[in-house]
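Progress note, project year one: complex with NAP.
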Amino acid sequence: MSSVLVVGGTAGIGLEIARYYADGGDRVTLTGRDAGRAAAAAKDVGGEATGLALDLAAPKDIAAALAGIDTVDGLVLAAIERDVNTVTDYDIDRALRLVTLKLVGYTEVVHALRSRLAPDGAIVMFGGLAKERPYPGSTTVSTVNGGISTLVHTLAVELAPIRVNAIHPGIVGDSPYWRDRDLAHVLARTPCGRLAEMADVVDATAFLLGNRAVNGVNLTVDGGWLLG
Ligand SMILES: NC(=O)c1ccc[n+]([C@@H]2O[C@H](COP(=O)([O-])OP(=O)(O)OC[C@H]3O[C@@H](n4cnc5c(N)ncnc54)[C@H](OP(=O)(O)O)[C@@H]3O)[C@@H](O)[C@H]2O)c1
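Model obtained:
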């Protein structure tokens, strides 16, 4: 990789991915919704990293926000807004926001950058295991994560030879959303005896971006939790 764009790189897993590539000397751009927050995260990451403001929930504005981006060798789509929704008490506005952010927004980033994606480049996008194992309130989260697993297939075919893969983490124990919660019940169902950590997800991202033969894959990173 020489140029890496991490959408949703101001926090959590995206921030750690940005840090990994900046530490390795790659040219990193990371995004969040707020320019100041993105600039602060880029400074924290170090190297030549720069920050950019971009709101995936406003997909018609994405192309303009990305106008200053040069060639992209590695594109990581990691952004998320947490959501609770059920079909019994269905909140259409919440549903539209998350579907727009993850499915339309992720796709529009790829569309906007289409001519600037290096032919030997690669894309990694993030779903999650709510697609396999729903929980109360995961109606929209399960739906969009399921959508990611088929989005990688159509993009891998259409964008060839650019490779497109997805990571579906289980609960990432040291990620900001989970690290202060009691996860004993998750650990009890995790055969490898430890929860996935952000470093494991960074490692999986580097594998998918770097391996020249892995394409159209939905990679589960959960310590075997789905089997537990
Ligand atoms: N953490 C887990 O255990 C876990 C489990 C399963 C799946 N995942 C998936 O892994 C990915 C990373 O999760 P995470 O927990 O590391 O996320 P996180 O810590 O909540 O960070 C979310 C990122 O998304 C950005 N973002 C939020 N709303 C946005 C919007 N409307 N437009 C553009 N950017 C936006 C945030 O930036 P600003 O706040 O600065 O705008 C931030 O950089 C997500 O796709 C998530 O679904 C995570």
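The CA atoms of residues 85 and 91 lie 6 Å apart.
The beta strands are 3-7, 27-32, 50-53, 72-77, 117-126, 163-169, 218-221.
No further modelling is planned for this target in the current period.
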